[in-house]
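hey can u check if this looks right to u? its 668 residues, i copy pasted from the old doc so theres a chance i mangled smth
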Amino acid sequence: MSSYDIGLSGLDAAQKALDVIGNNIANAATEGYHRQRVELSPSDDVYMNGVYIGQGVEFEGVTRLVDEFLDGQIVNQESTMAQISRELESLRTMEGAFGELSTDGLSTALDNFFNAMHELAANPRDKNYQYPVISTAQSLANQLRSLGTTVSELETQVYEEAQSTVDSINNLAVQIAELNGNIYTMLVGGKDANNMCDQRDQLITELARLTGITTVRMENGVVNISVGETSLVTGTNVFELEFGLVPNGSNNDFGISPAGAGVYNTELSGGKLGGLFSLNNEILRDVGTNLDNLAKTIVFEVNKLHVQGVGASGSFETLTGWTMSDEDLSDFEPPLVDGETIYVRVTYPDGSVVREEISVDASVGGDTLTSMAAKFAAITGLSGSQVNSGQLQIVADAGYTFDFLRGVTAEPPAAGADNTMTGNVPDIDISGLYTGDTNKTYTFTVVGNGTVGSGTVSISVNDGSGVVATINVGDGYVPGTVVNVHDGIKISFDVSGSSAGDLNNGELFRIDALADSDASGFLAAVGINCFFAGTSATAMSVTDYVSNSVNGADRIAVAGSVGMDDNTNALAMANLGASSMSDLGGITLKKYYRDIATDVGEQISLGQVRQDAATGVWRSLTKQRDDVSGVDINDEAARMLQFERMFQAMAKYINTITNSLDTVMQLI
């Protein structure tokens, strides 16, 4: 019967080989499928009639053709490409929002606003130039809000996507663990689990596209998987991941933790989730922070000047700030400058002007919004000042007005420590536009004795650092003549009534020359006489005080000196467009914005280079894998023909053996 055994073994081997080949061809287009091959070996020889005769073929099993190292490298590349792809998706969305190739980008909006302010500075009382300032400012605010909203929406999308991605990771982990169990059972039972291994490896590839993973293949056929330092699958056990937020300063980092453990890892790379982590923890945050810095700087710098000026409507009877969430000045954002002074100019009902000082203690435990309101209320003429529903209200009494104009007052202070002039005091008129860049106190001291226009008498002027001018007001001086003093300040001495004006040696008076009437930044921070509102890109707007009033355009603070007939404040605001900003690293607003847009473009370019490189490596590895594991239809057809002929030949062999035996039986 050994001849029949040989034939039957050949038929069986050929049939199984054809089945395997058919399975290969059927799965030629199946993602993750590895080609299979029958393993055949000759049966042991048997000693018969003095010779060793072979007993046919043994079917040893079906081998799954796989190079685990190559497959592992491909999985790593899949993970890398998925992360880069997700990052590029959001970066390209931002690039489109920046729209720097269009004529309505933020760079253009910045130019339009500051150009409109320059036009207004050249025509400070012309409403035809006031309204374009408001409209271009609104366009600028709209642009920043749009960009900020884009980033904010991307952050929300990334957050929701990260949550769903972690859910998908956990679902895949359950399927992989289940296949681990089935594969182990099959292998222990001596059966092949090739197709299950393909299914599991395909799930592992899908998992790698979602997150960076580390795999360890065990001898018992199972695969253990970890994400970062966190175990995800061990044999048939699944340790689900939990997504959460981890405080990082004023921001929240993405983190993952074993479910229920609450120990979050924020350093995750690879896969879609790695891209989402990178976007939230770095890329989007940096862009959002930079846009907020830009918006806050525009708002603060423009407001800081605007609060110190007045428009065509003149000084104020009442000003109301915006609602503050913080009471303590030490908590204000941006931070105030501690130890500075606010100078408020109060005009009395009789037309006289007094400049008052308010100290600002922005240290911890220092001033509050309420205490600052009390300081304003303590000033004669501003007794109605208060905090109402978190808003500072500076209210002038009947007949009084106030402002925060810079420069110098028109006349010396009242008699006292800062004015020791006695007798028939001359009329002293102070004018001009102060051009200094720091606040100074000028002391005017009489040298010699005499009267205005006669005698040997002069005025020595000291700015705190030394004598900056000596003015002859004796012989040769014509009373009432305006004389240049220093840094744009001018002065004249005239007769007082019937007297020519007494000037006594050693007498003095002091005047404050202000380049900044609020170096603390308090007024801008609380919204007093502000042009812009908002502390972030998404919240930036033109204040209702300026934009939503019939007389709003008249409130654009064009004038910056006590004469209220100049354009210095509008010019100062216009010049901000070309000024280097310390809060932005010493560069201009436009340069800072272009750096933001350029950085996004550079990240896209770098990401594309990385993507191309990773794709190239992936293609090379995939080709190598296909050489090992891929199904080539032509090769399979050739093998099918080989085993088809083998089957036919073995069938003919059995038929021949049968005929031979029949012949022998007939002879018997």
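The chain has twelve helices and 27 strands.
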